[in-house]
Amino acid sequence: MRTVVPTDKEQVGWGLKLELKGITKRFGSLVANDHIDLVVQPGQVHSLLGENGAGKSTLMNVLYGLYEPSEGQILVDDKPVTFDGPGDAMAAGIGMVHQHFMLVPVFTVAENVALGNEATKAGGMLNLDDTRARIREISDQYGFEVDPDAVIEDLPVGVQQRVEIIKALLRDAEVLILDEPTAVLTPKETDELLGIMGQLKADGKAIVFISHKLREVKAVSDIITVIRRGKVVGDAPASASTTELAEMMVGRAVSLTLNKEAAQPGEETFTVSDLTVLSPTGQRVVDGISFGIARGEIMAVAGVQGNGQTELTEAILGLQDHVSGSIRLEGRELVGKRVKDIIGAGVGFVPEDRSVEGLVGTFSVAENLILNRYDRPPFARGLAMKPGLIAKNAEQYIAEFDVRTQSAEAAAGTLSGGNQQKVVMARELSRPLKLFIASQPTRGVDVGSIEFLHKRIVAERDVGTPVLIVSTELDEVLELADRIAVLYQGRLMGIVPAGTSRGELGLMMAGMNAEEAQAQQAQAEAQQTDVEGGEE
Question: Which residue segments constitute the domains of the chain, with CATH numbers given?
Answer without folding.
Answer: 1-93+172-250 (3.40.50.300), 102-170 (no CATH), 264-346+432-536 (3.40.50.300), 361-430 (no CATH)
